From TrEMBL:
This is Uncharacterized protein. InterPro entries: TPR-like_helical_dom_sf. Residues 486-505 are annotated as: Disordered. Keywords: Signal. Residues 1-28 form the signal peptide. It comes from the Bacteria. It comes from Anaeromyxobacter dehalogenans (strain ATCC BAA-258 / DSM 21875 / 2CP-1). Residues 492-505 have a biased composition (Pro residues).
Amino acid sequence: MRHPPLPATAWAPMVAIALASLSGCAGAGSFRCPEQGGRDWHELRTEHVVLQTDLPSWKAKELAGELERMFVVVRSGLFRNPPPAPGLLRVVALVSESDLKRFAPRGAAAYYHRPEFSGPVVVMPGTLGEAQRRVIAHEVTLHLTAQLFARQPPWFREGLASFMESMGTEGSPTLGGAPEHWSWLASAHHGRGMRAADVLTASRFDDRTGAAYAESWALVHFLVNREPERFRALQVRFARGQDPTAAWREVFPEWDPAAKDRARTLDEALDRYLNHGGKYTSRPVRLPPAPRATDRTMTAAEVHAARLALLWEARWVRNDASWIRAEAEHALTHDPGHVDALALLAASAKAGEALRLMERATAAHPEDGRAWLALAAFVPAGQEERRLAALQRAVAADGTSAAALSILSAALLAAGRSGEALPLARRAVALEPWKGYALVTLSRVLEDLGQCPEALALQRRAVDVSPEGSDAAAWNALAERRARLESACGTPPAPAPATAPGAAP
């Protein structure tokens, strides 16, 4: 079956950047790279973290060490037998508060971003305070569990990540510790009107007050301490890919959220646990020794790349960001073929000029798969063979890029070559199982090959991993495709038996 080509916005990250105005000059307060008298930037690597920062070298080493220790502590707290870590976690730490405001969502102490077309990244200030520690412990949990659980309903995903926030405590991390705001949570649970059934049946959390997250934390904390064996049994079902609602009813039939009397029984148990001094287990975690870290000074072109790469799909960037053009143009003085700079400029250029900019990038950096991905985005309609060739170059340049693999598989599917697309799509999901685009692409390929039940399972996972606060229209499209497949495919086959995932909680 031949499929229509995907729209240009599906082909590369730059096209998804919402930048309505890139004209003018940055003016006062614009970024100065080291060659302009700005701070030196350092890249430090540990076993699990790569840190890029303008902190002084000695502070950068301290921060890299602390981030590595937090990663190891969270991982050891989550798993009895930790699976291999999913690649290096990139962290960008910015000394300047104004810089952080430019790159981060409004009000964020730190944030973790999983853009569809590049690797995950943490952006934070140059200091590691308690607020940053909680955020990083929370997000590292999400980063690590994505590879283990085939299904993660929002209450489990966010509740477990909130449960692990105590692992980020400076000097004395604990597994299962209660947050300082326990009493607030207890009173809130008793009087706010949100109940366990609300979070157990939610497809996504849009509650900006945090009530859904607090209720999810309370539910996980309760299950860890009151129902540890059955909670582990539930995790096994999630790891196997079982429908979360069916899994909950199998493990906790007396707390079925669809039955009012049984849902009320669970709320009463949570009330007793939170409001009447419920006992819980908390154990200290020994910090590992200070890790080894390599340190090198970054070139000016690399500094600009580290910063500008943060803007790929950064929907929170305000439209008055003329500083983006100024920094991109300055990056080109260091490297006339700078991939990130040319890609950002191409995003606001006319079609012909955008294509020429990316041809310039691929000529200068044929080894950079992102340049070929961006070039494919701007290939004119009707030149599908040229687009395919560019995508094949992207995969050849970086065979570990889930973005390149997914986009090439989608192009092959559109060309009626789903058999060739299948191994590429499977590899993309194996590399980055949290990527919605990769999951949907594999689902579409499987559907085209007549493997409807497996396609449905992948589409359900894509809905699960859709980030909170994402575009409502995009989420609705995911849910509508899921509903169509549910109607067409029926019930997916029962998952194969699996051993316990080994999650420590």
